């Protein structure tokens, strides 16, 4: 089995107000080209096809055209799950018809009981879910985190393993050890929604969506493909693309980059330089990219961003270097992050000059356990 | 060919704030039952499946379940067009897959060139369209009304008629001669969007959606099925249901009513009676219905609607008889309605004490011609 892994298309997303549809269309057609060049047996799309539960018509039309091309024109089997940005109900309309042409679209937890065998590989499709959905599906009120749910779901999937086949999980969640960029949605404080990597050890390969950085995990066997576009200034240094995964005879994973229609970049410099067309040309600075600018100047400059927009038609934002450095100094390292209960206790003490009573502590601890919706 | 004709489901609609989903689900399952009892060859759904371009998830789930039951479980061919309340783009996702199971979903004008032959009948599916879409599709900038577009579209369809078959048009528009209730969307002033009945003479039968009253037209051959639910107080006297159409050997059309889960009614009476549980019981007044109340009292009554709500849990609105009569007296008869240009001229004169100049009249007449979006 040789498949293309992609995820986090976020069709309909905007970047600082700019409509990215043409950017998304450009990389999506490269996915089709790569799939053909690599002669893959299937395409795996691991969630967040849309950016919103309720995408607008142009986003719907682009996804529809893309899926039609891949599945109906190129006759490629598609294995698709919904992500946290998708509405499973809206995305899932028609799924019973789509399976006829090997477009397998799964949007509910029930799909863990519907493994798909393609060639030498048994695929398990696990759409994004929240703990309350797992509580209902598994009929177990003790489930409050994604990891708790995964313990049972993985066991349930493993019980369905066909011996002699490769076993691949397609899922959309935050696997422990991942790093984050600004453009994913918030991760619950305390990591309530994180799935430890060792829970995934039973699978030969895990194709993940959710994190936009393809290098978020340092595992050969559990991989994020990352997004196809840079969706924030924190992603400027990432190379975007898809993974080509071969499960047998040995697992091999190859990255194939896509070329953006327009790049997203951060530029640091003096206002006099960055507002000077000659300087920009001489230094071969890409004026067509979506551009965030960090000014090194300290003096007041009248209408600085207006003048920079004249040179960078896809201007995003302007900051001063000092404030960037200040913000960076304030960034907490992982070790400094306090547990939610401690944060609450400190805050209460600060407000009232009293510590939490034991009863309050118990109540707060119980309530924090319930706070499992990200 | 024997088919069931329905339209204007408006799934997701609310009535004075009440969610009607359970009401809609109840009548939709009766449609499935009637289709089986009548052993129809197909079901025609003539637009406005949803109430909104952007329906919420519960509405999407109900339509999805309904279509799955009719097409996948009962194996009934479906001929479906989008109406003015639907988003053609959103509703149309998956249409290329649906045709595999004889679920023919058409949402663009291009479908006039894709007639469908089922048994002895050739169906033409014409989704709702606006004049600007016809201008683009027909590449004719002179089109400013639906009727103008229909002249060309009908000729185009007739050129594709297969001799010896029955020819049925499925469409969603306002056919001239229809009467209106409050719950359809506005009809353009001057009837710019109306289609004269004589334009439809070439078809053996025309299955229409748009008007909620099944008796809106007095034609055996051109019929609205009406909606399945009463969607406003102006529809209280209408019986809702579906049509069973047999095209051969002779055209026969039969109405099959559906039974509402809860009715919609208007009640007229004295406050003392209508707020008295004994009176209501003795007079067998349905207290479970969605109820609009017209009070005949003239005196001031403290918290009248609050007290009426206690007897009518699905209370909609309360009016006084006098104001109803006043409003009725102010209703204009058809003959009294002024042409748009005359209305504009009168309004201008009223504001400025001057008549429109000849130049202004020309400009206004031109502009009114452009105002063809309903």
Automatic annotation (TrEMBL), chains A, B:
Residue ranges constituting the Nuclease SbcCD subunit D C-terminal domain according to the UniProt record: 261-350
Keywords, alphabetical: DNA recombination, DNA replication, Endonuclease, Exonuclease, Hydrolase, Nuclease
MF GO annotations: exonuclease activity
UniProt domain Calcineurin-like phosphoesterase: residue ranges: 1-213
Record carries keyword Hydrolase: yes
TM spans (from-to): none
Record note on quaternary structure: Heterodimer of SbcC and SbcD.
Family the UniProt entry places it in: Belongs to the SbcD family.
Function: SbcCD cleaves DNA hairpin structures. These structures can inhibit DNA replication and are intermediates in certain DNA recombination reactions. The complex acts as a 3'->5' double strand exonuclease that can open hairpins. It also has a 5' single-strand endonuclease activity.
The name this protein goes by in its record: Nuclease SbcCD subunit D
Gene: sbcD
